[in-house]
Amino acid sequence: MSAQSTLNPPWVQPLLLALGSAVLLIVSFPNFNQPWCAWIALVPWLLAIRSLATRRQAFWWSCLVGLVFFLGSMWWLVHLTAFGGWLAIVGWLLLDAYLALYFGAFGWLAHQAIGARDTVQGTRKSSQTQARLSLDLGPWTVSLIVLPCAWVALEFARSHLLSGLGWNLLGYSQAPALTMIQVADVAGVWGVSWLLVFVNVSLLHAMMAREPWRRLAAVSATGMVLALTWWYAQRRLHDPVSRIGVRVAVVQGNIPQEEKWDEENQPAILETYERLTREAAAHSPTLIIWPETAVPGYLGLDPTVTARLHALARGIRIPLVV
Question: Which of 50, 67, 174, 214 measures 20 to 30 Å from 251, CA to CA?
Fold first, then answer.
């Protein structure tokens, strides 16, 4: 064993690249809210996949990316369970491990498209092998279409299989970026996810291509897609669908997750939302909306809570969406 291999084990590089992508994905979402990170977040991951020898390795390293991402971005799920304690933690870990499998599937497919094609076990490939692989899924023009579509298909599957869990889809990271999300009125969040993966794959090819014309083509493809997105956004933002306005008030009690389901906090939570609702009603909106799980109980089943909300709605004489 050489001194270099001892100092730099083969797993160090893919580990650093995988963790780099996971961190970039995490900071793309709340509470960090850095949507620009999503435009480059997949590049280290794809570089790691490119350096791996087998699809099995690509699968497991990609599962690691997904596991760290979901652990870091959905940690608050431990507060949304009736069990609490260590059972909540175990359930959260199992859920994150399951969701990571979709990242693994993407890594397996990505290895087919952009896996290392220059070296095998440290030796140069023969010119015959290189010529054969040039006709495989390797051309960047193919992977630019295949990989974004594969990502969207996996996100769609994750959102529907086993009842589905569509949280933290890649496109949701762009919620603060008003220009980038205008295409969602045509393609939904899937279209935004597709766009993000397209740009990431294009940047990878721009970095790895040997021929200048390939780099130029990758950069041009990215620029063209972003320019079309910006052009469409400007049209949508300056051409509202309707001139008829509706005044809608949204109240947010900002109750910590760990306090929301504590029965002792129920009176204080209801008082908070009642106060905010009356403040909003003073501005005469057409509709007042409460956020998800705002009611610390079961509306329609808990007679005390239900009567209290009915009394509030009758008192302000404005419809509530709860």
Answer: 174
Report residue 223 as tokens.
């620029």
| One-letter identity of residue 168 | N
- In whole angstroms, what is the distance from residue 159 CA to residue 188 CA? 13
Paired residues of 288 in beta bridges: 249, 320
Nearest-Å Rg of the Cα atoms of the chain is: 25
The b-or-e profile of 191-201 (16+ CB within 10 A means b, else e) is bbbbbbbbbbb
Cβ-count burial 310-319 (b if 16+ within 10 Å, e if not): eebeeebebe
CB atoms within 10 A of CB 296: 21
Q: Residue written as tokens 């029965």? A: 263
**What is the helix (H) or strand (E) element at residue 49, kind and residue range?**
helix 42-51
Q: How far apart are CA 19 and CA 240, in angstroms?
A: 42
d(CA 159, CA 161): 6
Note whether 30 and 72 are within 8 A (CB): no
pLDDT digits (tens, 9 = 90+) for 137-163: 345 677 888 999 999 999 999 999 988
> Distance from CA of residue 309 to its chain's centroid?
35
Backbone φ and ψ for 121, nearest 5 degrees, come out as 55, 40
In which residue are the tokens 């870091």 written? 72
| CA angle 85–86–90, rounded 5-degree value | 130
| Cβ atoms of 288 and 281 closer than 8 Å | yes
Confidence of residue 287 (pLDDT cuts 50, 70, 90): very high
pTM for this one? Answer: 0.80
- CA dist 280 and 270 (Å) reads 15
**What pLDDT is stored for residue 88 in this prediction?**
80
The two structure tokens encoding residue 307: 């009567």
Q: What is the pLDDT of residues 97-135, one digit of tens each?
A: 999 999 999 999 999 888 654 433 333 444 444 433 333
Question: In angstroms, rounded to a whole number, what is the distance separating the alpha carbons of residues 5 and 1?
Answer: 7
